């Protein structure tokens, strides 16, 4: 900068500051910034100043406005100049000529009329880079490009004032005979010799036929892109989608939309037929978002892939139980208000809690509908006519419950109200009192309904059906990161409990509600419960695509699922490291303070390390599983040395020391541990929480409250947050009166409800309705504990034993288990990094590989565990009473053998939780129904959504992503939706019309089938067969595939005479000798299993009383037979098996082949069995060799395997696929 530089006063205003210095302000820039003189010259060299100066000079020269002539430009002036500059650059580029510049030479204030173009603007200095692809070519332009060039030139002339608007129209009309593609509304700078990207105009038009075919999408491209953007397990980031769109454009795909256009379309489609994402502000101050539960349920009823599978009534199936609707919770225990309240019979609706007349002229009030043998039945209370003061009325006898069938029903409540005088009976609304079984001498008032109105759902339904929709609700935490850095996201998911077990386990039927990395689970549960309460109060209207009519839904929660810490949090339980470690009962663990008064005096206490000690190295164990929801443990019983603000010094600080439990105390504790304690009850817990609140209203009670929580095992995280606030409210005060006054003021400021929202779920007890989760308790509990103990302690550093165990695992026969061959090295040398799938395989193999590698006590515990596991995983229970009886016996045997090994295992609370499993199976059905494998696998989908978000609003963004996924899933499943009224002649009405949700503006009870539509023909054809998209969307398993039962795979042998087959040699008289036969390698059973040669099977023959076992020796197919034409076998040769006894150590049936063969039909084979050789008895050695395969190529390396004979096999009843009748 030159010394002594003085700013030009024409462009700089000067002001003397308070400190005496001179400051200058730039008049052209008008940025309100003051600069010293030595900074002014540098500012004048910047491009923004030069642009502002040129604009300033232009305004002064033209004097178009008063503000311009005053020399004080505004920010809006600058914006207008920049907008005009960009428009001129775009139009100059669209002319297709480098000689046509944006500004004419006569433009006011233009310093260099011969400026370069393309390049920086001579007015603003901005280089717009819009003409980089423009080339001065001599090739003749297309008529389209010529017309667009003329349009750009005429527009520039109009801006410069060279022509009028009339002249512009006249000039453009000269080329009006050129036919333009209606898709193009902007300039296209391409020639016939280049293959650059085709730009999609912003306001794209589609033809009417394409819009109808791909409705509600404009065309096929946007339809398929919408699929791509919302695949659940293949999430794309915006950068990846940009790359994909570029790939489409460079391959000459027409009319490829931009990311912005697709996002706009997503918003419109969500309004049309999507799921809303609702924001909530939680009690603890966190903001989170929840997807609309009501809209998800409505979609399910309008989804033809889901609705046909749904059940809405409990079912009395006798002793057989395979579904949740057949178990006690739904059939007997659920409040009647939460069950389906009505049935339709002969066009009449019969509701619960309404007087009903029976065909035998008696009267009753049904209070629960259920199904038995395909017909409706009801549990009902009898009615008795009573008289008082010449007034006749009805008495309800709850002490006289009866069961009635649908055939017993004669008149429902409305008809009875109309016809009661015909029968000379009181009006059915005259319900005077109620007599109960509990207090038969006390008469109470009828309070279930308003007797003059009847069931409230009758009026709300307006003549339509009302259905209950129970839900399996699940919550768990997962990391939102791909890396190992933990980024906790708590998420709520649910499935419909009315779905069959095989359907509810599909990822397709798992629904997302909400997630947050800030709000804890119970705070988010508040938003879920709020939606549920609204739905239970008002109902949810939906279109039933099976009945083709509107229905009213009542959702409820059947059970709360999750891992043990999460279920403890649901139950407001202190956690599994507390003294009262069980959320279900009041069993008590080790109490160090109550153990020995002398030790209490010496200040000895239980060390957490001592309490959690087990025979294994627990490093790497999942602390979250056993730690509990809050981490509170026995240490909370230690009296604090510090006092409350006004409390006296209670006791000296205890010295740390190792607690030693006496033998008598241990025996008492273990005996209690192996029994179920007094059940926890919802009402008692609520009373305790109320007492905590009363205690918190008194100054100086924090220690007493902590002790109360420890003694009861109750801890409500929501209440704890507010009670901690009460204690902190008076910390800064001095003196009891001031402290109490501050505390009272804080109590007044509390919200109306300061407890967990779980207590607002009237039909659910979080203590009893949080069933034992078998994945975390059994596989990630006992199996994991035992296996790590085997590797770390039983085998330890003995490499020869580790290698032997690895060889045995590799040699383990996995036929009939539906698992891959075991990788012994991984299971042995990486025991600390195994997953649930690995432990599932270990549980089935352990008894056959550990027999001489562990102590006898350890082996007996393993055998007991392996017998227990398949009982727990039974998908179908033929007799619930017998099954739970056997299950209880096996649980007791497992715990006893574990105690003989070492009682230190009983420091793990999961061993006690197992005792509650039989009750939960009685109440909820087979344990596999409330297992969480499907939910656990869904965590990967949530993580993918998190990874591909910008992390700025994870709760909202992830919820919206799942809401859009729900829409795509629903539409491509052929689901119905209620469209808006669109203009008939506008094929683009979807893109431009107001997206008002008209569902709320109609009476849902008047919906008709004509109002509901599905997607167009094009999208449905895309999903009409199995392909990549259907597999990603989870639709592949729903396809109507042909029955593949019996399909066989032929071997390479040529057709041969019957006598040359094994069947012909063993059973020569079963077929003609003149026919040719082929043999097969395998065929598919009716249950989907593949049956191969040499496998053991169970056969249920029509002529046999009970099933029998056999081995498949040959599968034959007659050449030219009807079966051969369908690729089915004509017969299966089996050699019968005799159960000779039970293995003493394995406690499994011993099998031996007998010299008897049968030719059976393939349909008679029920399932395959897994059998193992008794290597221990025959002292089998690893003398065999097997080649090692690497990268699917056989190498020269060999590994040792067991070489076993074919005699003396045992039926592996540890198989998770085995049925109990095959075990005995």
Question: Can you tell me about this structure?
Answer:
This protein is an alpha+beta fold and 1224 residues long. It folds into six domains: 12-134 and 143-173, no CATH class; 208-274 and 971-1038, no CATH class; 342-454, no CATH class; 575-760, no CATH class; 774-930, no CATH class; 1048-1169, SH3 type barrels (Roll), CATH 2.30.30. It is 35% helix and 17% strand. The chain is built from 42 helices and 32 strands. The model is unreliable at 64-73, 132-140, 173-205, 595-655, 981-1001 and 1220-1224 (pLDDT under 50).
Radius of gyration: 39 Å
Low-pLDDT residue spans: 64-73, 132-140, 173-205, 595-655, 981-1001, 1220-1224
Number of helices: 42
Domain tally: 6
Helix content: 25-40%
Q: Could you say which structural class the secondary elements and strand pairing correspond to?
A: alpha+beta
Strand content: 15-25%
Span between termini: 101 Å
**Rounded mean pLDDT score:** 82
Report the major sheet.
11 strands, antiparallel
Shape: globular
Please tally the β strands and state the result.
Answer: 32
């Amino acid at each position: 900068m030159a010394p002594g530089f003085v700013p030009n006063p024409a462009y700089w205003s000067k002001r003397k500051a308070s400190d005496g210095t001179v400051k200058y302000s730039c008049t052209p820039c008008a940025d309100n910034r003051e600069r010293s003189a030595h900074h002014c010259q540098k500012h004048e060299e910047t491009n923004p100043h030069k642009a502002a100066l040129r604009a300033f000079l232009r305004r002064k020269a033209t004097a178009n406005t008063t503000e311009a002539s005053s020399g004080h430009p505004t920010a809006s002036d600058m914006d207008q100049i920049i907008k005009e500059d960009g428009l001129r650059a775009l139009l100059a580029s669209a002319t297709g000529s480098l000689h046509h510049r944006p500004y004419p030479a006569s433009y006011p204030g233009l310093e260099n009329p011969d400026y370069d173009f393309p390049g920086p603007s001579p007015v603003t200095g901005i280089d717009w880079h819009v003409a980089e692809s423009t080339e001065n070519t001599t090739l003749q332009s297309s008529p389209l490009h010529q017309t667009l060039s003329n349009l750009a030139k005429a527009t520039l002339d109009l801006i410069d004032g060279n022509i009028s608007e009339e002249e512009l129209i006249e000039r453009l009309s000269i080329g009006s005979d050129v036919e333009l593609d209606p898709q193009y509304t902007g300039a296209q700078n391409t020639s016939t010799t280049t293959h650059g990207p085709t730009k999609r105009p912003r306001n794209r038009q589609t033809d009417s036929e394409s819009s109808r075919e791909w409705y509600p999408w404009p065309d096929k491209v946007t339809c398929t892109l919408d699929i791509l953007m919302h695949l659940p397990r293949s999430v794309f980031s915006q950068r990846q989608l940009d790359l994909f769109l570029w790939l489409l454009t460079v391959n000459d795909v027409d009319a490829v939309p931009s990311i912005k256009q697709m996002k706009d379309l997503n918003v419109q489609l969500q309004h049309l037929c999507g799921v809303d994402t609702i924001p909530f502000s939680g009690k603890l101050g966190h903001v989170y978002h929840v997807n609309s539960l009501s809209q998800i349920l409505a979609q399910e009823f309008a989804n033809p892939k889901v609705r046909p599978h749904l059940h809405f009534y409990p079912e009395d199936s006798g002793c057989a139980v395979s579904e949740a609707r057949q178990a006690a919770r739904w059939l007997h225990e659920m409040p009647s208000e939460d069950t389906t309240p009505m049935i339709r019979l002969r066009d009449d609706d019969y509701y619960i809690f309404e007087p009903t007349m029976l065909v035998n002229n008696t009267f009753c009030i049904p209070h629960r509908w259920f199904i038995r043998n395909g017909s409706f039945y009801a549990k009902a209370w009898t009615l008795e006519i009573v008289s008082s003061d010449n007034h006749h009325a009805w008495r309800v006898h709850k002490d006289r419950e009866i069961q009635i069938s649908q055939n017993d029903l004669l008149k429902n409540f409305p008809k009875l109200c109309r016809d009661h005088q015909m029968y000379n009976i009181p009006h059915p609304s005259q319900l005077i009192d109620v007599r109960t079984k509990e207090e038969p001498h006390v008469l109470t008032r009828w309070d279930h309904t308003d007797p003059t109105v009847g069931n409230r759902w009758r009026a709300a339904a307006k003549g339509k059906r009302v259905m209950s929709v129970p839900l399996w609700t699940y919550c768990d935490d997962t990391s939102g990161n791909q890396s190992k850095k933990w980024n906790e996201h708590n998420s709520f998911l649910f499935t419909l409990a009315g779905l069959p077990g095989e359907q509810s386990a599909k990822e397709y039927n798992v629904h997302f509600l909400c997630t947050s990395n800030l709000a804890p689970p119970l705070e988010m549960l508040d938003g879920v419960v709020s939606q549920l309460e609204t739905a239970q109060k008002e109902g949810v209207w939906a279109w039933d695509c099976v009945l083709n009519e509107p229905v009213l839904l009542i959702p409820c929660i059947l059970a709360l699922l999750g891992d043990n810490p999460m279920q403890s949090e649901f139950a407001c339980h202190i956690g599994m490291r507390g003294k009262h470690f069980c959320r279900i009962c009041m069993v008590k663990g080790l109490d160090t303070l109550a153990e020995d008064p002398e030790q209490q005096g010496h200040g000895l206490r239980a060390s957490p390390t001592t309490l959690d000690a087990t025979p294994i190295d627990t490093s790497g164990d999942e602390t979250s599983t056993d730690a509990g929801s809050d981490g509170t443990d026995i240490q909370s019983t230690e009296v604090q040395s510090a006092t409350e603000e006004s409390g006296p010094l209670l006791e000296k600080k205890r010295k740390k020391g190792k607690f030693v439990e006496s033998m008598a105390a241990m025996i008492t504790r273990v005996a209690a541990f192996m029994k179920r304690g007094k059940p926890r009850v919802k009402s008692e817990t609520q009373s305790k929480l109320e007492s905590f609140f009363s205690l918190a209203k008194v100054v100086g009670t924090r220690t007493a409250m902590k002790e109360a929580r420890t003694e009861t095992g109750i801890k409500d995280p929501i209440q704890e947050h507010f009670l901690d606030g009460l204690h902190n409210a008076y910390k800064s005060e001095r003196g009891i009166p001031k402290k109490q006054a501050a505390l009272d003021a804080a109590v007044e400021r509390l919200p109306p409800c300061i407890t967990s929202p779980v207590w607002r779920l009237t039909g659910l007890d979080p203590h009893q309705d949080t069933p034992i989760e078998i994945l975390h308790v059994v596989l990630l509990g006992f199996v994991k504990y035992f296996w790590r103990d085997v590797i770390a302690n039983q085998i330890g550093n003995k490499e020869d034993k580790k290698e032997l165990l690895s060889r045995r695992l590799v040699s383990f026969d996995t036929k009939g288990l539906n698992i891959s061959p075991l990788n012994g090295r991984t299971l042995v040398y990486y025991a600390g990094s195994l997953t649930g799938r690995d432990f599932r395989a270990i549980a089935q193999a352990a008894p056959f590989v550990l027999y001489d590698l562990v102590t006898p006590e350890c082996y007996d515990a393993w055998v007991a565990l392996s017998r227990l596991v398949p009982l727990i995983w039974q998908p179908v229970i033929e007799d619930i009473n017998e099954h739970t009886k056997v299950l209880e016996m096996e649980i007791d045997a497992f715990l006893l053998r574990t105690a003989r090994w070492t009682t230190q295992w009983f420091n793990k609370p999961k061993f006690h939780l197992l005792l509650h499993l039989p009750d939960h199976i009685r109440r909820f059905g087979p344990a596999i129904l409330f297992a969480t494998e499907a939910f656990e696998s869904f965590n990967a989908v949530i993580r993918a959504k998190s990874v591909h978000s910008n992390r700025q609003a994870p709760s909202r963004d992830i919820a919206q992503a799942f809401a859009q996924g729900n829409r795509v899933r629903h539409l491509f499943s052929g689901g119905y939706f209620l469209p808006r009224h669109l203009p008939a002649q506008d094929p683009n009405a979807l893109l431009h019309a107001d997206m008002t949700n008209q569902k709320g503006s109609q009476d849902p009870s008047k919906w008709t089938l004509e109002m509901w539509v599905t997607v167009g023909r094009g999208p449905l054809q895309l999903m009409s067969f199995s392909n990549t998209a259907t597999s990603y969307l989870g639709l592949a398993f729903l396809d109507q595939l042909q029955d593949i039962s019996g399909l066989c795979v032929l071997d390479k042998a040529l057709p041969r005479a019957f006598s040359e087959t094994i069947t012909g040699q063993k059973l020569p008289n079963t077929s003609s000798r003149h026919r040719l036969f082929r043999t097969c390698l395998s065929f598919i059973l009716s249950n989907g299993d593949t049956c191969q040669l040499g496998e053991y099977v169970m056969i249920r023959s029509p002529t046999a009383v009970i099933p029998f076992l056999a081995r498949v020796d040959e599968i034959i197919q007659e050449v030219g037979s009807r079966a051969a034409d369908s690729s089915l076998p004509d017969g299966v040769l089996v050699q019968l098996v005799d159960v000779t006894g039970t293995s003493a150590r394995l406690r499994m049936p011993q099998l031996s082949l007998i010299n008897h063969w049968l030719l059976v039909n393939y349909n008679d084979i029920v399932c395959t069995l897994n059998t193992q050789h008794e290597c221990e008895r025959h002292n089998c050695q690893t003398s065999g060799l097997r080649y090692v395969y690497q990268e699917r190529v056989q190498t020269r390396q060999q590994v040792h395997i067991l070489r076993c004979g074919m005699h003396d096999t045992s039926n592996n009843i540890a198989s998770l696929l085995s049925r109990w009748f095959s075990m005995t």
